[in-house]
Amino acid sequence: MSISLRRARTIIRKTLDKGREMELKPLSVVVLDAGGHVQAFEREDGASVGRFGIAHGKAYGSVMLGLAGTAQKARADQQAYFMAAVNGVYGGQLVPVPGGILIRDKKGVVIGAVGVTGDTSENDVEAGMAGIEAAGLTGEP
Q1: Are 102 and 129 in contact (CB under 8 A)?
Q2: pTM score, two decimals?
Q3: Which segments in the chain show pLDDT lower than 70?
C-alpha cells in the first residue's frame, strides 16, 4: 500500500483543521511516501517560508531511519554523535524532533511519514496524529 494523493490531502486538511481547533500558530505539513518523496505539502497563511525544510526534515528522518521524531530525539539525547553522523549521511536533511510521524497501514507496514511544524513539537504531533487518523491510517509519533 502507498499513500494516495487523496489520502495525503486528507491528512494535511485534517491536520490543519486540528491546528485551528487548538488555536495553534500557522502550521506547515508535508506527507512523504515510503521512499521519502513528497506526496503533498501545504503551508498556512502566516507560516514562515522556511517551514517546508523543517517539516520535510522531520518526516524524512522518520522514513529514512524508521524512527518517529520522538524516538529520534531520544536517540539524539543519548547519542548525539550517532545522530550527527547519520544526518551527515543524509546531507543534513534530518530534523530529529517530535513532529515527524511514521504512517503505518493496517498491517503495520510503514508507508510514509508526516512532518508538521509551526507550533511546539508536542502540538505539532497532536495535530498530525489527528490528520493521520482521519485518513484511516495509524501514526507513530
Answers
A1: no
A2: 0.96
A3: 1
